[in-house]
Design a protein that fits this description.
435 residues, alpha+beta, MetI-like fold, 6-stranded antiparallel β-sheet, elongated
Length: 435
Amino acid sequence: MLPYAIRRLLEMIPTTLGILLLTFLLFHVVGGSPAQAIKGKNASAESLAAFDARYGYDKPLFCGNWVQIRAREDRRLGNDLAQSRGGTEKCGMRNAECGVKIPLAYALPTGTYRLSLDSLPAGDNPSATVVLQSIDGGEAVTNAIAGVRQAGVWQVSFAVPAEQRAVVLAVTNAAPGAEMRLRKRTAHFFDSQLFHFLAGLARGDLGESAEYGTSVGSVLRRGVGPSLAITMPILIGGTVLAVMLGLFCAMWRDSGADRAILLVSTLLMSVNYVVWVLAGQYILAYRLRLFPIWGFENWTYILLPVLIGVLGGLGRDIRFYRAVILDEIYRPYVRTAWAKGLTGAQVMTRHVLRNCLIPIVTYISLSIPFLYTGSLLLESFYGIPGLGCVSLNALHSSDMAVVRAVVIVGALLYQAVNLVTDLCYAWLDPRVRLG
């Protein structure tokens, strides 16, 4: 069994990497800009850039030496450049003649930058000027920088020192319609969002929550306890009760009790889960005062959510377990057990139930990966600060780091549960061979 477990763990590595890559694509590419989602449409470019720099979104997606910045969008130089080609404009810093000023959304921080002009006519030979200002707003320095032209593309690189900020860029002798691009140099070729994401996971760092201002790991740890406090009793209590009723229905099949239980099960399945939540909260908690209505102060606050959770899934579980047990009850070994004179309880528990454990374990294993996330409805309606409530709040506030962590942990937990389930098959049934 141990060699099989090791081999399965090795086989899970490509699947795990695929899950991580898919998660990265969903949250970093398909989902758009996290800064824009959290800060809103009216946020300034400087605040968006500060958010990107804090959470590692100011890097290339996969790899590269240069990355686009928010200080200047990629666009073509307009008519203002054509109108000023006959003369120069004053930058306002030391009265330096620096041609047409290129507005920046914010002062560039320390780093190395590259300014590019594409689609230039053959005769144009641009030049550029950068105006640097001290961090405390003191005297500005104007530096002329020389560029290189190759195949119709003119490029110039410049550095912004730690004690200064670039506040104005200017270009002369550039034709209208030339496409201007401003890029910042990365620390190295693999200084990207993908490798930043994978390196953090390797260290056990799931990122920082923009909503709570703390690490995502601490947010998840605070929510795991309340979630397990309601989901574990729901799983264990619901499973034990459903299996017992399933055994009873199978043993007394087609009897009045069997039909009554099936009728109640159908009714439980037919009523929407939200109805059970609202009815339990209004009737049992508000009207009858049998349970607390909202909060998570002691163990009494989880009694009503657990009761609602068990009732909500009981009808489905009873019908499933009854069908599984009925499939076994007509086997030859069951008739042999009856012929030996065993009682009904002995036949149903020692023989039938034991041979039904594999489908039962499979059914239970499908629910285990979702235990740590809790129940969104139960936690929201009853004020339980579990992972379900945390996930819902993260969706509402666009806290992508928390949502991404919940998805990743859930996917990895699902793989681990599949491995444990396979090992349980071999332990429960000697006929199962782990290849």
